[in-house]
């Protein structure tokens, strides 16, 4: 959504973002596509670059709706992914300079294996 809002004037960002959010708050892909089509029709002439980006990435951004058993609130944020990246950076900074790419990959892989075992 951030990529779309770059092409929207500051005064209209809040209202446009509210319309966009309605797309992803829908319970299934079909209703989300219907809402997206209404947004596209409403704003196509006013914000052509943003609408072009929306059309291009809509299908990919709605893939999470294909999994109804997932808690959409948990996957709608990148906080957990950012936390993993932060932990990887913290662990690799301790080492400083790795002798080879393989040694870096071993460290990161071992952390990710440890992380997934804690989840499982």
List the helices and strands and how they pair.
Layout: H1 2-5, H2 13-24, H3 29-43, H4 48-61, H5 72-75, H6 79-95, H7 101-119
Helix pairs in contact: 2-3, 3-4, 6-7
* Overall pLDDT confidence: 88
Percent range for helical residues?
over 70%
Q: Write the H/E string, N to C.
A: HHHHHHH
- Specify the number of helices: 7
Q: Number of folding domains?
A: 2
Taken from the alpha-carbon principal axes, the silhouette is elongated
Number of strands: 0
Instruction: Give the class from helix and strand content and strand pairing.
Output: mainly alpha
Report on this structure.
Keywords: DNA recombination, DNA-binding, Transposable element, Transposition. This is Mutator family transposase. InterPro entries: Transposase_mutator (IPR001207). Required for the transposition of the insertion element. With 120 residues, the chain is mainly α. The protein folds into two domains: 2-68; 79-119, no CATH class. The chain has seven helices and no strands. Helix 2 (13-24) packs antiparallel against helix 3 (29-43) and helix 6 crosses helix 7. It is elongated and about 55 Å long. The two termini are 31 Å apart. The model has no long low-confidence stretch (mean pLDDT 88).
């Amino acid at each position: 959504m951030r990529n779309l809002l770059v092409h929207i004037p500051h005064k209209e960002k809040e209202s446009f973002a509210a319309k966009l959010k309605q797309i992803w708050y829908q319970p299934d892909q079909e209703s989300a596509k219907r809402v997206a089509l209404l947004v596209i029709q409403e704003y196509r002439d006013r914000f052509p670059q943003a609408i072009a980006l929306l059309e291009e990435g809509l299908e990919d951004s709605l893939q999470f709706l294909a999994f109804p058993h997932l808690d959409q609130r948990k996957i709608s944020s990148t906080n957990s992914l950012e936390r993993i990246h932060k932990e990887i950076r913290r662990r690799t900074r301790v080492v400083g300079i790795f002798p080879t790419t393989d040694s870096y990959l071993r460290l990161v892989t071992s952390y990710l294996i440890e992380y997934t075992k804690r989840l499982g």
